[in-house]
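Two proteins, back to back. First:
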Amino acid sequence: MITRIALTLTLLLATASPAAAECFADYKAKQEGGSLKLHYGIAELPDRACGSKRDAADALGPRLAAGGWTLLNVVSIFGPDGLAQRKDSAGQFFLRY
């Protein structure tokens, strides 16, 4: 019985997928309606959107649109190590969308 449990646990650990690395994008967006508003922001991306700027834009565009913003471009995709240096520049749009 204990051997069976140990074998099961070993197999589960061996086949478990590794934790996905976090990825983020910095982007520029606009909002129109009276006067033009622009913002620079940082957003966390789902794993499927970390491969390219196009994938990031596809994931981020609808999130921004729901808040009344239009995505202009994805500046870059980066890991958690790039958050601190961009936080002040993003201001209120740091991890907002």
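And the second protein:
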Amino acid sequence: MSQSPPVLSYPIPSRAPLEPPNEWAELRQGCPVARVTLPSGDEATLLTRYDDVKQVLADPRFTRLLTAPDAARLSDSEDGGLFNSEMAAIIPDSGEGHQRWRRLVGKYFTAKRMAALRPAMAEIAEQLIDDMVKRGRPGDLRAALGFPLPVYVICDLLGVPAADRDRFAYWSDTLLNLTKFGNAEIDAAQAEFIQYMSEHVAAKRAEPSDDLLSELIKESAAEGEGLTDLELLATGMGLLVAGHETTANMIGKMVGMLLADRTRWERLLADPSLVRSAVEESLRFDANSGFGLPRYLKEETEVSGTVLPRGTTVICSMAAANRDEDVFDGATDMDLSRSPNPHLAFGSGAHSCLGQSLARTELQVVLEVLLRKLPTLELAVPVEELNRVEGLVVGGLSDVPVRW
């Protein structure tokens, strides 16, 4: 199958805040391996079919880091951001080094550990909802609940003060830049972030407590094969960004999707046992998940009948793949009881999201508490008037106005 000419600019804009671009279905059907132009002006290859995306994410020939000289630059700024930065190169990309890192860090994000955090998460969610109600209608669900809850949780896990959450949010946004920030602003913010986390790691090494970074430091001292200070620094920064930014956005989008069609919310009120499958379906149905996962090809490889040369930068659109009609019956419908639901929202293979149990737990808790405390919740504006987050590699809604 031949590739299309590079006529599409990427990311492909959508005509509605919670709906996918029409081009996704067209590409899946007619051009699943498409050439696109990125905000930087560089070209990349876009994958939109489920099988292709899953294949590439699991294939070690497609590497995670985009620091190679011939890799496409994603951003329109000189600094490459999250995927191209020097900080991204600190965590090993593959092999035993990567397995060691996932083994050391991953055991703190097991489903069992996250389940133990549920009562504390529910308590935080209830307090945040009570505070929103006290401030009166309408409220902004993203600012009142979606953003602060995952921030409180990840800050507690890392042992950093939640009072610094606004600084974390700004630093995270600059790391996730696509077109929003200029070079000088990004460089200054990242220097501040690195300095902050360096001092935090040093303080935990001097006086460990019971947070994740302290435990990693203790384990390093005991076993002699733990993480270096630089790896701890990169781990702390990565977890702080991933631990609140994506989940904060997903909380707002999930509630927006469920309230966009009132019958969805009513169905959950009638049968709260559907919360878990509703969360999974929200993750699958999310058409505003952001840029997708970029990969750099180290050797010539074939995908879906198309030969990709060495040096190709591939963009895996998990959101487009999650709408693949060949994999999901009724893919364009939001089915709250869908099972099984093998969506790719958290990626696939060796680089699947380390914190997916944390994200799932937070989303489930938020939905359970909202259904119980605010059964009359509804959007305070028409769904088409919701505003997308712009200029970042993550997708989200800038605010979610609600009333009850």
